[in-house]
Design brief:
58% of the residues lie in helices and 7% in strands. By secondary structure, it is mainly alpha-helical. β3 and β4 form a beta hairpin. The longest helix has 28 residues. The radius of gyration is 21 Å and the shape is elongated. The chain starts with a helix and ends in a 5-residue tail after the last helix.
């Protein structure tokens, strides 16, 4: 949150010392003056307000906890229901994969169920680029299993640190591709809506990375017919 406040909102450069964030920052100013004290104080004052807001949002979120029910009120796509509906599809896919590769099915379900919970937090509302990352920290604070927390963090990435996270990530990406294809949201030339091509490449990379050997085409047909009931284009 500190780094994002600096880089994205104020275009400041954070400073690190001994691989830890340092209590200082760099700002570039085009002001012509022999005394930069006012420039420095002004930028410090602006950043202090930003960081105070971030701390306030964080503390509020910790009081409120994860609110899964709120996802039922967030539309994913008009033709595909809410974010909660998407999670229910993802859970079905993830549980199948978990059974295939001997992972804890209940824990996998928990990870997928909480994967979008941080969308309802004040920090992510303010810093949208921290989706998943903030979910990881909240999951830790709320006492969730470390595998669950890490899977939430890695769900948007193109790789995974372990097989558990790999299954969660692949399940989420498979649903994204299949559901959007089913309503005609297809890549066209250099236009790739919703990063479908990137998600497809990520699925292949993660499968290879963790040796998740299964016949993808047969698995997709199984999901299409028995789980999601969507038309594959």
């Amino acid at each position: 949150v500190i780094i994002t406040s600096m880089k994205e909102h104020q275009r400041y450069f954070p400073i690190f010392k001994d691989e830890k964030i340092y209590n200082g920052f760099v700002v570039v100013s085009n002001a012509k003056t022999d005394d930069f004290s006012l420039v420095i104080k002004g930028n410090e004052r602006v950043l202090k307000a930003r960081l105070s807001d971030g701390l306030f949002f964080w503390e509020n979120d910790l009081k409120n906890g994860f609110n899964i029910e709120g996802l039922k009120n967030i539309t994913y796509m008009a033709e595909l229901g809410t974010v909660y509906d998407k999670e229910m599809r993802e859970i079905k896919i993830a549980k199948l994969l978990a059974e295939m590769f001997g992972e804890d099915v209940e824990l996998i379900e928990r990870a997928v169920l909480l994967s979008k919970a941080d969308l309802l937090t004040e920090v992510v509302f303010e810093f949208t680029e921290l989706q998943g990352i903030m979910g990881y920290y909240y999951a830790q604070k709320f006492g969730e299993n470390e595998k669950v927390a890490l899977a939430i963090k890695e769900q948007y990435q193109n790789s995974a640190s372990n097989r558990f996270s790999a299954i969660v990530s692949v399940a989420i990406k498979i649903d994204t591709i299949m559901s959007l294809f089913s309503i005609g949201k297809l890549p066209k030339g250099n236009k790739v809506p919703f990063a479908l091509r990137r998600n497809g490449i990520a699925i292949i990379n993660i499968i290879k990375e963790h040796n998740l050997g299964f016949e993808l085409d047969k698995f997709l047909n199984l999901i299409k017919d028995d789980i999601i009931n969507l038309k594959v284009v």
